[in-house]
Amino acid sequence: MSWLFDDSTSVLAVTVLVEIILIVALLRSGKTSLLYAALVVAVACGACVAIELMVETDRERIEQVIEQTRSAVLANDREQVLDLIAPGSLKLRTPAERYLAQFFVRGVKITDGPHITLFVKIAPLSASVALNARLDLEPKKGPLAYRAGLLRVEARLEETPAGWRWTEAAFSSPLSR
Questions:
Q1: What ranges in the chain are assigned the alpha helix state H?
Q2: pTM of model > 0.85
Q3: Mean local confidence (pLDDT), 78-103
Q4: Which of 38, 59, 144, 164 is deepest in the core (most CB within 10 A)?
């Protein structure tokens, strides 16, 4: 039933279709019971949309972590980026510290994705994320061979007591997939 809480588009589409059918039937027959049925469908749709707005899913939390990471990288806030990485993930933490020390990030734009896959049958919950991003960089020292480029990111997140945190990531050219 996660389709209801992740995106209410399907509920809205079905509601519009049912409402059109009920209104056409009401206009042809004139039965007031069809008007009541249309009102019940509208109220049910409203309830579904309200539930979707109130419930925060794991996918939405992961999207928030992705946006927080993008914002922290764009603000060149090393501490905030490292806060979003799981403490035991030295394979990710060490390169992140090194790259953030070498470059001043002027722009980050996600061009494709994020494509999120949740793994809910394992403990702790984890997810994989794939996305393409365009980076605009400026070196903090010395010349830089390139100042902008596309980057393919394939990463994993894990749910921790502090929330979703990055555990590993691989970076490559999006053309090398």
A1: 2-6, 9-29, 32-54, 58-74, 78-83, 90-102
A2: no
A3: 85
A4: 164
